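Researcher: We're teaching a course module on how sequence relates to structure. For the next exercise, students receive a sequence and then see the predicted structure as tokens, so they can try to spot secondary structure elements on their own. Here is the exercise chain.
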Amino acid sequence: MSNGKIQKPSNPDLPANLTKLPMEEMIYEVIQTCPVEVEDTEWKNADTKLKEDISAVEELLKGIDGRLGKDKVDLSEELRLLKAEVEGLKARKPLDLVVKLDKRKPKDLGMQHSQLPTLIEILSAGMNVYLVGPAGSGKTHAAIQCAEALDVPFHFTGAVASEFKLTGFIDAQGRIVSTEFRKAFENGGLFLFDEIDASYPQAVLAFNAALANDYMDFPDKRVERHANFHCIAAANTYGQGADRQYVGRNQLDAASLDRFVFIDWRYDENLETHLAGNADWSSYVQRIRKFVEGERIRHVVSPRASMFGAKLLAQGLAREVVETTVLWKGMDDATRNKIIEGIEPKVQVKVDQAGRFEPVVKIGQQVKKDDAIGNLDIGDHWQREVIAVMAPRAGQVIEIIEKEGVQAGAIVATIRW
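Model: And here is the predicted structure for the students to work with:
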């Protein structure tokens, strides 16, 4: 659980009749001027400790794999226990976040993104935040939760093509047409400018002027920035223009970008698994995402695939249908097969010595643990010695070399679990 603490205000803005108010109201007025510092040590420490634990266990696994190749000992049970420990660490639940701004009841924001405390801290310091993250990373939801934590109204605007979407206008009857931005700027609130990098650059310049000068010229009058106005701009890029994934994004003016503190808003896979409620399906989606990102395939696999897929599977839809509708989305067969093959669990069989390898099994053949898959002839003209090369685990042989000479450490076969 993360806590918030109140600091002493440097220049409090208090009402003139403060001393005439009842004691309870007097305290309340003073408290409202106090900045809030969110204590997120537990979040940071928990995440760091988790990574350290996973790394330590994975190092043990590497050591055991080496012993399997050298000593030919049966460590299957030890491997099973360690792998179960790794999965347990990776499946830890997200932390609860509780924020308390004053003497009122604390706000329990529940299970939240691991970077949320940092975002609240920056907003509490009066900074404008530029959230950069892939589709489905929870930027909008985080902004809503920040408004709740800061106890201010939430206002939202998507990509804009005209500055009037921000400033408003006077209609034909002489009436002022206001905007979500003006409501937050004038009366206080958290304003989310979503997909700012998809907005028309000239429109963003008007937004930049309001942030730079702390006032804004609206159609009817000039308005000063409210003390409780908070601003988040959300985007899929850093404002440098289109990239291979988000081709419809514009380059933003450098002066506009300079008004923000940037946060690289990443996917929180633990939160994703928790929200989906189906650990096996979420793990499958996350393996596909890592492969897609590693191979730089132009395809988005967001946490929505985990949550939508889990719901459809719970409704009884066939796994093949769910994958087609929430994962592949029209992807060509060649790319899809490449991904499926790339994420399948495999083990490579290596030889410890140089020699001439001769296979005794074929591609597609099922083998059991310790079955011979080939022979390695390490003898010379005077003294011949043949060593059997064994399968380290059960599975299907998907690759195996032909009869040929190999060096020590060479891969001679691949087995799919």
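Model: If you want an answer key for the exercise: DSSP finds 14 helices and 21 strands in the chain. The chain has four domains: 1-107, 113-264, 272-343, 346-416.
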